[in-house]
Specification:
Layout (H helix, E strand, L loop, with lengths): L19 H7 L14 H19 L3 H15 L5 H15 L1 H28 L8 H14 L5 H16 L4
């Protein structure tokens, strides 16, 4: 008597599906554009700020002086009457309702933080001893402090900025 059990069929491998770009080029068309609209408002201002931080870091031979200059530049950008602070305030409410807008702002802000982190890495390489926090954490704290300066009284902002620079560069008062 033959067994009633059937042998399982061999699994067939499926070919991976071609990407939209590959399908379009095979059909003789241009691939679809993956880029969205150009950044505007707060997102554009943050990306400009990130590029400016990069040029400050590249143009200053002293890592500590580059970091201090960058923090001063950030503080001016985030001052309560600066266009960036206004653009961020105006963009924050729509960004809460639209995931795409929130992600775009977060990505642009992250570019600024990464620019600061590069400067902290240069300061760490220039200084003896290991820092108590990672350069990523210190960059995040420094950016948050600069953003908070927009809510400080104008008279106190300069003092707060000097304290931030002393902390970030390890300078003594």
């Amino acid at each position: 008597m033959a067994s009633s059990r059937r042998r399982p069929a061999a699994k067939q491998r499926r070919r991976p599906r071609a990407s939209p770009a590959r399908r379009a080029s095979a059909a003789g068309r241009a691939p679809p554009s993956r880029s969205g609209p150009p950044p505007r408002g707060a997102e554009a201002a943050l990306l400009v700020l990130a590029r400016e931080l990069q040029s400050i870091g590249a143009g200053e031979p002293s890592p500590r002086r580059a970091l201090a200059t960058a923090l001063e530049h950030l503080a001016r950008g985030f001052a309560s009457d600066a266009p960036l602070a206004t653009a961020l305030a105006q963009a924050s409410l729509p960004a809460r309702r639209t995931k795409t807008a929130a992600l775009a702002l977060a990505w642009a802000r992250e570019q600024v933080r990464l620019g600061l982190e590069e400067m902290f890495v240069r300061v760490d390489a220039d200084a003896p001893g290991a820092p108590s926090m990672t350069s990523a954490t210190r960059a995040w704290l420094a950016l948050a402090a600069c953003e908070a300066l927009a809510r400080e009284p104008r008279e106190a902002a300069a003092d707060r900025l000097q304290s931030l620079i002393q902390w970030a560069t390890g300078a003594r008062a």
